[in-house]
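Homework help board

Subject: predicted structure for assignment chain

Our instructor gave us this sequence and asked us to write out the predicted structure in token form, then describe one feature. I got the tokens but I'm not sure how to describe them. Can anyone check?
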Amino acid sequence: MKKRIAAVVLALAIGLTAAPAFAEQDTGRLVLQKLFRGMANAATGWMEIPKQMSKVWSEQGPLKGSTIGFGKGIGYAVARSVVGGYEILTFPFPAPAEYKPIMQPEFVLSDLPGGSQAD
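My token output:
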């Protein structure tokens, strides 16, 4: 719990010290979008496991969906969660360029039918 509080305080301190760089309204929106994207991906990265299992299951059958899909899901879940953490820690900085998402799709369920599409 103390580590979480320290991380939030550190993120806020970085954000406040970098605030003058956000003079443009569009840049401020991109910064917040990166922060919220990072929080969403860090929190929902685990959803890659059932998503990948379902995709492989529908393409290659239940046996491969339950095995290969599970393995792919774990890999994607770890990657999405780590990228989410990175985006939380680096949200005040334009890395990558123009605050673009590192992973595609931007959110875990964005590419499913009915999933929200980014602008």
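Reply (TA_rk): Your tokens look well-formed. For the description, you could write something like this. Residues 62-89 form the longest helix (28 residues). That's the kind of observation they're looking for.
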